Amino acid sequence: MFEIEEELKKLPDRPGVYIMHDEKDDIIYVGKAVNLKNRVRQYFRPSHDEGIKKAKMVEQIRRFEYIITDSELEALVLECNLIKEHRPKYNTMLRDDKTYPYIRVTLGEDFPRVLFSRQMKKDKSKYFGPYTSAGAVKDTIELIQKMYQIRTCNRNLPRDIGKERPCLNYHIKKCNAPCQGYISKEEYHKSIEMVLSFLNGNYQPIIKDLEKKMMAASDSLEFERAIEYRELLNSVKQIAQKQKITSFDGEDKDVIALAGDERDAVVQVFFVRGGKLIGREHFYIKIATEDTESQILTTFVKQFYSGTPFLPREIMLSAEIEDQDIIEEWLEKKRGSKVYLRIPRRGMKEKLVELAKKNAELVLSQDKERIKREEGRTIGALKEIEKLLDMEKLNRIEAFDISNISGFQTVGSMIVYEKGKPCRSDYRKFRLKTIQGPDDYASMHEVLTRRFLHGMEEKKELQEKNMSDVYGSFTRFPDLIMMDGGRGQVNIALKVLAELHLDIPVCGMVKDDNHRTRGLYYNNVEIPIDRNSEGFKLITRIQDEAHRFAIEYHRSLRSKGQVHSVLDDIDGIGSTRRKALMRRFQSIENIKQATIEELKETESMNERAAQAVYHFFHINAEKNDVPGS
Questions:
Q1: What backbone torsions phi and psi does residue 607 show, to the nearest 5 degrees?
Q2: How far is the C-alpha of 412 from the C-alpha of 431, rounded, in Å?
Q3: What are the residues whose beta carbons fall under 8 Å from the beta carbon of 226, sequence distance 6 or more?
Q4: CATH number for the domain running over 4-86
Q5: Given 24, 290, 333, 371, which is the most exposed site by the fewest CB atoms within 10 A?
Q6: What span, in angstroms and rounded, lies between the C-alpha atoms of 16 and 143?
Q7: Distance from C-alpha of 118 to C-alpha of 116, rounded to nearest angstrom
Q8: 255: closest CA among 364, 340, 133, 323?
């Protein structure tokens, strides 16, 4: 048994990382210390106050462990790694992990390529970025291919020169086909040098060259080529304009500023590369009321730069951070050269930090309103339904609907809403196996039985494999079942649940004479709902979604069945001829009225096939009631 007081006595006077565990042995906090003995003992002193958040954490600690290091820098690195790996509950965490795209020029190859990359590796390639927009990176790469005709293939050149035919890119003038030897290595490298110049922001020579070529093509009356040059020129100017937001001393920088309130914070990061602001990104952080700006920024810097492959020479901050010297030392080792953490006090740099801070404040303000509205539509709506039905912890709702036309191709749908939002990955379709004719109650009985039997079988299989913590497609059961109808549909659901010995609440979405939802049928009582409430709007969305999903499935089966019944039943008519007939005649009625000669003239058709189609619609139709005739 772990005795905290006894273990506190064993703590060493050394730097290191301490790890707190709760009663389930989950890691709930990771921290670093210059002196483990002094730092960890502080948590358990009654007089020591670290705020409400840490106080709640201490109440849950059942044991702790620690890892000693040789220096505070090693402790910092280890702390970052452990936080990223375990994401402890009481550490301040970024809400999202993002990787940023780069443009990679593979200079280690004899015939380099220009590629999209999510990682910056230690190889012979040259990397440009990081960029905040993957779309912008792809557009830039496509523009480079059009302008400089750089290869994109994976062929090993020059070894594979001449072994295969040139690809489509050569024919559409996006590649000079070095794979065929159509361009020398020296000429190809001249294009690569221009690509590197372009990516380094040197746009003027390219703009002048394209303008010259455009005018020359126009003078030669080659207007199509002139238009191509004009479009390339516009693309280059657009990219160049985006790069001109600001310019300082040509250095790479990150600008980091914080805006926060009592519960949430937003950190805004501006990316300055080559002296130009190339983009920005913001990050949400959940905080405690006692967290200071300095503490939040310290946590952010450690987590952000433990995960990004690129480190700029200078990082500008809106406030001082803790352990600045040790963090600078850590960043220098990661980068391989000097890194400066600075808080600008005047001039253009201070204005850029202020701009980043204003953007963070704007994002926080706007996002809080958006989140508030979204929570009203989702979580708030669920709370209203909970109150209406006198339920607790309503999270997952499943709704079912049946669709058919006079019993033809009866299908069922199951849609799922979690936390008030559609969970489309859990939607399911059912094609009825045992029911013939328009019997909605019997159809619903089959659908519900199949849904829950399948889930019970999956759970049993997972338990037998000691995988009860794994979820299959049907193993998660709902907190509430919503039926598209009143008492009758609810009673069918309750009957199925009773047969399977399951206890799940069921309610019906009752409609008025105009087929609009008017209330819920629950526990043998119809409960009216305020039509202006968010709960009512959510119920309507669920009902409409269940209906839409069922009808779309039924429509797809119906269209397949109609095509098959008319054409695929004709001897000698397969998918190729069927498509050719439909392309030419556009409808079954037109095919039926066509002559043998007209049918024979259709692509893929011959005399025998044409006669088969004609006889099917004319001679056989007199003997049998041919569908579509």
A1: -60, -45
A2: 6
A3: 214, 215, 217, 218
A4: 3.40.1440.10
A5: 24
A6: 50
A7: 7
A8: 340
Which tokens is 362 given? 């704007």
pLDDT at position 503 over 90: yes
124-150 pLDDT per residue, tens: 888 876 666 677 678 778 888 888 889
C-beta separation of 280 from 306 below 8 A: no
User: Nearest 5 degrees, angle CA 44-CA 45-CA 50?
Assistant: 80
Please report, for residues 111, 201, 309, the alpha-carbon distance to residue 118 in angstroms, rounded to integers and kept in the order given: 22, 21, 10
β-pair partners for 421: 418
Peptide bond into 158 cis (omega under 30): yes
102 burial via Cβ count (<10 Å: 0-12, 13-18, 19+): buried
Within 161-292, strands assigned E span 253-260, 264-273, 276-286
Domain with CATH 1.10.150.20 in the chain: 569-623
Q: How many CB atoms lie within 10 A of CB 186?
A: 7
Q: Coil, strand, or helix at residue 311?
A: coil
How far apart are alpha carbons 272 and 127 in whole angstroms?
A: 15
134-148 vs 185-199: helix crossing angle, rounded to 10: 140
Provide DSSP, 256-286.
EEEEE-SSEEEEEEEEEETTEEEEEEEEEEE
Number of other CB atoms surrounding residue 500 within 10 Å: 14
Write the pLDDT tens digit of every residue in 208-252: 888 888 999 888 888 888 888 888 787 776 665 544 444 445 678
* Candidate CATH numbers 3.30.1360.20, 3.30.1330.10, 3.30.420.340, 3.30.70.20; the one for domain 390-517: 3.30.420.340
Residue percentage of the chain with pLDDT more than 90 = 19
Task: For strands 16-21 and 27-33, give the pairing.
Answer: antiparallel
Q: How far is CA 345 from CA 78, 118, 313, 316, 342, in A?
A: 33, 35, 19, 11, 9
Q: With a threshold of 0.70, does the pTM exceed it? A: no
Q: Containing H/E element for 495?
A: helix 487-499
Cis peptide before 130 (omega within 30 of 0): yes
d(CA 439, CA 458): 29
Q: Which of 71-75, 237-241, 337-341, 516-520 ranks highest by mean pLDDT?
A: 337-341
Residue 341 has pLDDT above 90, yes or no: yes
Structure tokens at 501: 């010995």
Distance CA 152, CA 582 (A): 39
Side chain identity at residue 361, one-letter code: E
The CATH classification number of 569-623 equals 1.10.150.20
Apex CA 596: angle with CA 594 and CA 602, to 5°? 75
Contact between 484 and 547 (Cβ < 8 Å): yes
Nearest to 217 by CA among 209, 226, 208: 226
